[in-house]
Amino acid sequence: MRHRAYRQWLDPDVLPLLERLVRSGAWWDVVDEIAVHPVGRVLLDHRGEATRVVDAWSVDRDSLWVRRTAVLAQLRHGERTDTALLARVLVANLDDTAYGTDFFIRKALGWALRQHARTDPAWVRTFVRTHADRLSGLSRREALKHLD
Questions:
Q1: Which pTM does this prediction carry?
Q2: For residue 7, what pLDDT is reported?
Q3: Which domains are seen in the chain, by residue range?
């Protein structure tokens, strides 16, 4: 799906297929590839429609992998990161949430924050400070890894 010849099909209509692949793959090596690349591309190119889907995925009741996909979807967006969306998906998966204590969610939170820190370290420091009581040590360490 990453090949340029297939980019024409990376629109919001492909999101149900990508969700199905995430649910059936259900492991980090499958999920991360899907989240960062095709889901990330759809989100970047179709912000309006895709944002609603990613928001819904961030609170999915049945799958930590769907939630992880929402957390990692903007990993490569850099300066084009929608920080409001990033904050919502992160907060939806902090320690006191349905899957917030799971290692794979905690690691994804830290990774998303660490990556965004390359673009906006002040935003990341503020997020970590604001949510310190609900952010795991793992997520915090990952987030601040290159800032301290």
A1: 0.96
A2: 84
A3: 4-144 (1.25.10.90)
